Amino acid sequence: MIFPKNQGVPIGSLGSGKIDFFSDLTIDNITIMNNWSNPLRHIRGFHLVDLATNTFLQGNPARDYKIKTRNKTPGSIMADALFPEARYKITSPNFEVRIYSPFVPRDLKNSSLPAIIFDIRGRGVIALSFPNIVGTRRWGRTNYRVEGRVNGVLMTNLRASQSDPRYGEIFIGCSGCKSKIDYEYWVPDRAEESMVEDASVFDGSSIEDGGEYEYHIKQFAREELGGIVWKEIDGEESFYLTWFFNGRPHHYPYGHYYENWFSDAIDVAEYVDSEKPHVELPDNGNWLNDAYRNSLYVLTSSWLTKDGRLAIYEDPEISLLMNTIGSMTWDSISFPLLEYFPELTKKMDEYFSLFLNKGEIPHDIGEESIEDPIYGASYPYSWNDLGPTWILMIYRDYRYTDDVDLLRRNYQKMKMVIDWLLSKDEDGDGIPDSRGGFDNSYDGTYMYGASSYIGSLFACALRAFIDSSRRLGIDASMYERRLEKTRSTLESLWNGRYFISWKSDKERRDTCLTSQLIGELWCDLLGLDNVVDKSRIRMALRSIYELNGNASKYCLVNSVNPDGTIDMTTDQMKSCWPRVSFAVAAHMILEGLVDEGLSVAKKEWQTISERYPWNQPSKIDAFNGSHFGLPYYIGSASIYLVMHALNLVNKTK
Fold first, then answer.
1. Which is it for the CA torsion 192, 197, 201, 203, positive or negative?
2. How large is the average pLDDT for residues 621-637?
3. Is 300 helix (H, G, I), strand (E, B) or coil?
4. Residue ranges of the Glycosyl-hydrolase family 116 catalytic region domain (predicted)?
5. By three-state DSSP, how is residue 306 classified?
6. How does pLDDT run across 174-213, given as a tens digit for each residue?
7. For the chain, first and last CA: distance in Å?
8. pLDDT digit string (tens) for 62-75?
9. C-alpha distances in Å from residue 493, one per residue of 380, 423, 496, 508
10. What tens digit of pLDDT does each residue of 295-324 get?
């Protein structure tokens, strides 16, 4: 995929952090130092250079800073990305550069490596430099020359304490590299009357191998320190950037999964050089695969703890909540994760039950924590869509993995959740009552009485619970009778074209909500019988396609009025939620509206890919397609459901 303007693809693995690489082969937004929510920006001292021709392989090597050098920049750079890879074709001089972090399904070790690999093909003398950014303060930063299986520069900070998020080390190197440990790239400039980046070391006359084996920043110095490695190549060579941040800062006392396998950054580099792990994800060149692969970028906003717990930020800048569920958030990213790492995903889905509160499932597992959940994000209202979502996740994990022990362990907790939800059905219509208090994932929109979104989701969760009971040999006849009430009430929301948003004794909302049948999507995905009439499901999906789809040229609008105009009541209703849009597109495909579903998905992806593919928002402005809501949103990979739906349909042909 071509890079949009000012967008970089994050390269990194599960739980280890990432670095954004841009189309001109510059970098930004480093989060490898336990700083997911506080990325390091404006990076100085990172360069790729062909010393044979004194030419940077970067289009703008200093980005925002003056660069004092006689070196040249390339004639052209063609860049494309397919997460977690970036590829560059460079001319004058001629090189091909592939930058990636390994990702190997069902191999958690090789998918959580704190490593970025630079495969460089061409002929010349390639130099890679990187700044020592270890430790929050500069004093104490120390570089060491490393010679062994992999040569290079080890960067650490002798004064950093274990409570410092940046406590650890960084290594750059390759097999047979030469190295320079005292790269001083931030110097005073008389003409500018300020500090400037100095890259004159790459002009071919002052870079030398050898010298001291240790160099450190002295007390009170304003110095910034980097390292350089270089090697003559004729063909293809690999350079490595590895890291090892094993501190225990207050916001992340858990340790990293990679600490189970490695002792330091050199250890990681030697392993990568020896084993050569790669990216093992589909690459068939079509737009849907590109959309899916690039939407997996959200995995770089993840924690993978030393004891094997995975958590993803709802967004790493504003909410800081981990593994948020409801309305296709963690519940959507966990679909591909279940395919790639089933045991890990089951563990984290089951983890929610540890925080069960008298039948109420939490909204997440903590605010930048995995032990302090929030119960509904609009206190004091409990949410009606979290419990059904969790039940469907557990049932899904059982159906996709045949793990009956998982079902058996969680059955009584599933029953507690169902019973708690039924207790919220005060009018006895079979659907937990919406109280108008922001009591579901549409937490900025009032709903009252019987909501099609809540009713549909609850109905399928009830269907899944009944089937779980049957499979475990437990009588569920009482719940079957309640399901009939749920079905009847849902059918009463039918207006001849779609299921209206909600109705109560006093009022109703006749708008067409995209998620009105989200539960029926779950039923289709899980092989459960639908709750409402099949023909009405298809008619409703077609109405969503025609009404919500035509309301915006950018995306599928969350809610429209019966005449197809955009529902302007709240920001949530007048916007588009990509995670829901892709889920609805998948539902269309499963219900036989294949062209319509692909059309919805393709339009939404076109808006995203042209603007913010690696920073997908929680909301899209339906009027201009602009970024709206929470950034780097957890539900970004929902487009997997579109690909999954197509595969399911093709299997039945």
1. negative
2. 97
3. helix
4. 308-641
5. coil
6. 999 999 999 988 888 777 677 888 888 888 666 777 678 9
7. 31
8. 876 777 767 799 99
9. 28, 22, 9, 10
10. 999 999 999 999 999 999 999 999 999 999
pLDDT at 219: 80
- Greatest Cα pair distance, the chain, in angstroms, is 85
Angstrom distance (rounded) from CA 62 to CA 178? 23
Share of the chain above pLDDT 70, in %: 98
The CA distances from residue 212 to 197, 208, 643, in Å, are 23, 11, 55
DSSP 12-67: EETTTEEEEE-TTS-EE-B--SS-TTS-B-S--S-EEEETTTTEESSSSTTTTS-B
Residue ranges of the chain that CATH labels 2.70.98:
9-275
Place 143 in a pLDDT band, splitting at 50, 70 and 90. very high
**Average model confidence (pLDDT) across the chain:** 95
Instruction: Say which DSSP state 92 is in.
Output: T
Q: What is the arithmetic mean of pLDDT over 336-346?
A: 98
Exposure string (b/e) for 520-547, b if CB count within 10 Å is 16 or more? Answer: bbbbbbbebebbbeeebbebbbbbbbbb
Q: What is each CA distance from 41 to 60, 133, 217, in whole angstroms? A: 16, 11, 21
Q: If you compute the radius of gyration of the chain from its CA atoms, what whole number of angstroms results?
A: 27
Closest CA to 179 of 133, 130, 124: 130
Residue 547's closest CA among 585, 513, 584? 513
Residue ranges, comma separated, of all CATH 1.50.10.10 domains in the chain are: 287-652
Task: Express each pLDDT in 370-388 by its tens digit.
Answer: 999 999 888 788 999 999 9
- Block residue for tokens 């779609």: 498
Closest CA to 502 of 423, 564, 431, 582: 431
8 A C-beta contact, residue 14 and residue 111:
yes
As a whole number of angstroms, the distance between CA 133 and CA 60 comes to 21
CB 102 within 8 A of CB 26: no
pLDDT digits (tens, 9 = 90+) for 30-77: 999 999 999 999 899 999 999 999 999 999 998 767 777 677 999 999
Fold entry, domain 9-275: Beta-galactosidase; Chain A, domain 5 (2.70.98)
What tokens were used for 254?
């858990």
CA–CA dist 233, 156 (Å, integer) = 28
Average pLDDT over residues 146-171: 97
Cα separation, 330 vs 344, whole angstroms? 13
| Amino acid at site 222 | R
Count of helix runs (H) and strand runs (E) in the chain: 14, 28
Q: What is the pLDDT of residue 511?
A: 98
Strands (E), 562-604: 575-576
